C-alpha cells in the first residue's frame, strides 16, 4: 500500500468506500464485498506494522 501509515489509511478508506458503493449498487454480493474488505484490512495491517 504505502510506507506512510497515514497514506495507507487513506488508501484503505478509499478502497473500502469503493467496495461499499459497489455493494450498495448491486455490483457485488456480500461474500465478495467481505472478501475484498478482508484483503484490504490485511494489507492495511501489514503497512502499519512495518
Give a verbal description of the structure.
Helix 1 runs antiparallel to helix 2 (30-49). This protein has helices at residues 5-24, 30-49. The protein is built from 2 helices and no strands.
List the helices and strands and how they pair.
Layout: H1 5-24, H2 30-49
Helix pairs in contact: 1-2
Key attributes of the depicted protein:
50 residues; 2 helices
In short:
It is built from two helices and no strands. The protein has helices at residues 5-24, 30-49.
Distance between the termini: 11 Å
Order of helices and strands: HH
Q: Over the alpha carbons, how many angstroms does the gyration radius reach?
A: 12 Å
Considering DSSP H and I runs of 4 or more, what fraction of the residues is helical?
A: over 70%
How large is the count of helical segments?
A: 2
Outline the biggest β-sheet.
none
Shape: elongated
- How many structurally independent domains? 1
Number of strands: 0
Beta-strand percent range: under 5%
- Taking pLDDT < 50 over at least 5 consecutive residues as the criterion, the unreliable ranges are none
Mean pLDDT: 91
- Structural class by helix and strand composition: mainly alpha
Amino acid at each position: 500500500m504505502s510506507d506512510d501509515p497515514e497514506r495507507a489509511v487513506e488508501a484503505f478508506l478509499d478502497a473500502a468506500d469503493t467496495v461499499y458503493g459497489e455493494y450498495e449498487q448491486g455490483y457485488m454480493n456480500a461474500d465478495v464485498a467481505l472478501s475484498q474488505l478482508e484483503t484490504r484490512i490485511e494489507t492495511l495491517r501489514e503497512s502499519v506494522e512495518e
